[in-house]
Amino acid sequence: MNLKLASALVSMIVLFFGMGARAITIDAFSAAQSLLAGYGGATSVSSAVEGPGVLGGERDASLNLFSTPGATVAIGAGEDNGLLFSNVGAGASLTLRYDGTGASGLGGIDLAQGGFQDAFSLVVSMLDIPIDLRISVESTGGSSALTKRAMGEIFGRPTETLTFEFDDFIATGGNGANFSSVTAIQLDAISLYGGTDLSLGDFSTTSLNPPPPRQLFLFVTEQDTIPVPEPGTALLFCLGLIGLFGYRSGYFARRT
């Protein structure tokens, strides 16, 4: 087989399977959950909910006040689902953790999908005050994290999609996280001041830099290639076969 032809075939196979490597939904924010901290009550609250659209089948949420008076979180409450976070009079932090329902966590899920997913995508809408969003990834070999600041606009409500590239994550434990074998994912929203109104939606993986076609499992080398006969060579070869057949059948002997 010609080397170039083999390379093209393998590239097509790689691209075909790559097209099937779709984005992984971490949270569609459709499973309903609500938290309320402060306002005369506890300054730290948490709960867990199971439902569709949540990676691992369960979302663990906790809301913490840096001081009073309070903060609220509502998930999956509106027609368009989503997460709504608001704090008044004090800074607060919201933590969402996805580590499955068993001891093995997410079971070593491959977020990279063989190299065809290379970032997290998070849709963010805010009303006013900037907020820090931090994504942490854990695997058996260690953990990594990346923090980005979503910028608000006074009296406006811009919507932006933040992307967190896997290559930009910084190791926070061990040898860093292995994105091909993830056991837990955590999203933290940290507001240092009161008055933040934040909306989140569509937390998933995405592909920012699709890999080029690669020659995987290609064992054909230049030494292994068999040249294709040119037309002249092929014609002489066919004439020789005809002559051999005629000699064996006695046709030429009868003619002479």
Gross morphology: globular
* Topology as a string of helices (H) and strands (E): HEEEEEEEEEEEEEEHH
User: What fraction, in percent, of the residue positions are helical?
Assistant: 10-25%
Overall number of strands? 14
Low-confidence stretches: 1-20, 215-229, 251-256
**Largest β-sheet summary:** 7 strands, antiparallel
Q: What is the beta-strand fraction?
A: 35-45%
N→C terminal distance: 43 Å
Q: Which structural class best describes the helix and strand composition? A: alpha+beta
Mean pLDDT: 80
Supply the number of helical segments: 3
Radius of gyration, rounded?
A: 30 Å
Description:
A hairpin with a 7-residue loop joins strand 5 and strand 6. Helix content is 16%, strand content 39%. The protein is an alpha+beta fold and 256 residues long. The chain is built from three helices and 14 strands. Strands 1, 2, 5, 6, 8, 11 and 14 form a seven-stranded antiparallel sheet that branches. The chain has a seven-stranded antiparallel sheet with strand order 3-4-7-13-9-10-12, with no helix packed on it. The N terminus and C terminus are likely disordered.
